[in-house]
Design goal:
428 residues; alpha/beta; Rossmann fold; pyruvate-formate lyase- activating enzyme; OB fold (Dihydrolipoamide Acetyltransferase, E2P); 3 domains; six-stranded parallel beta sheet; five-stranded mixed β-barrel; 13 helices; 18 strands; 34% helix; 23% strand
Length: 428
Amino acid sequence: MKRAAFYTLGCKVNQYETEAMAELFRKSGYEICPYDEKADVYIINTCSVTGMSDRKSRQIIRRAKKQNPDAVVAVCGCYAQTAADDVMSINGVNAVIGTQDRSGIVRIVESVTSHSAYNGVRDIMRCREFEELSVTRYEDRTRAFIKIQDGCSQFCSYCIIPYARGPVRSRAEADIIAEIKALAENGFKEIILTGIHVASYGSGTDTNLAGLLAKIDEIDGIERVRMSSIEPMAIDAAFMDAVRNSRKLCRHFHLSLQSGCDETLKRMNRKYTSARYAEIVSEIRAVRPEAAITTDIMVGFPGETDAEFSQSLEFVKKIKFADAHIFKYSKRRGTPAAKRADQVDPRIKDERSKLMIEETAKSRAEFLSRFAGTVEPVLFERGENGIYEGKTDNYITVSAPSENDVSGIILPVKIIGSDGVSLMGEIV
């Protein structure tokens, strides 16, 4: 039996697409093995959101041929899409397909040899159809990703992703529902709706995100519905009605901020102000008081002055996020921000990153402290030495002892402590 190995870099969409491709190989008779083992085929699903992502992608690609010089190495994903020639120049790469044609990955791999080269990357900006991929099983997971859309038409001035993923395309609602039902039948309790720009789901069609949530609410077996990152401007009256009425939507909203300074937001080509962002957070908290509001924050964007950074930091203090991913601006070739002359010194980026991380760590600890003594439902995922770990519906990691295997089960846990990052409790 031939063996195929996969390596995924980047976001939840990439994770979903890797699982879907692995399923295609299984159905074609391949055994799926770990990436560090000898395989006949290596598939690397790349990321290009930062310069570091590009470098990591190249490192992982080079590793494959060292493990088996006779293997076929295929590269897909955002880095492959935006830098196909660079990827093709890496010694040992046999096929590059970018962010299209993943549904034909088995055919493509079997059409090349370990000594040939195939560049199948096409112009993603001409793509108008959603490429249907599906997943019915996940290895070693209790939560399942569901990809509902692809592409982004926002063109934030720092972001390469619209050029890597193309325009917005929404998945057919019937296909989404069918996949969720199949996952429910396979025992999954929680699904995560994901996409490149989830807030755009349904754009140009007769459906929308709120309507989709209402239909998912009716699917037996699924107890939790979680969303990946969502743009603040998607929070409209219809969406808030869905938040208010849904029995399954998790109390967790990852609202991308990027900066708390309006001048910086303008240069980023973001479509909201800090004041509107704060209003949206207040609207959510009025309906779901215990909701975890998490975010992404960029520091060192071109032209960001000390005063602008201070405004952003003060705004973050005011919002009190449950958690935040802090990252330093990274030049992406081909984006407007990369051409700006007012790039921020790397040392200043480091200092600002440290200050922002410190502030969000405080607010996370404060958020966790609110749950002392409460009983929270936890979906347990894994265990070691009698200690099991899982997530609350508002995305807090909780650990608790158990003599029985509780993986994949939602159980009530009384919270007895916190280390500032996660909670500890007892199953009740």
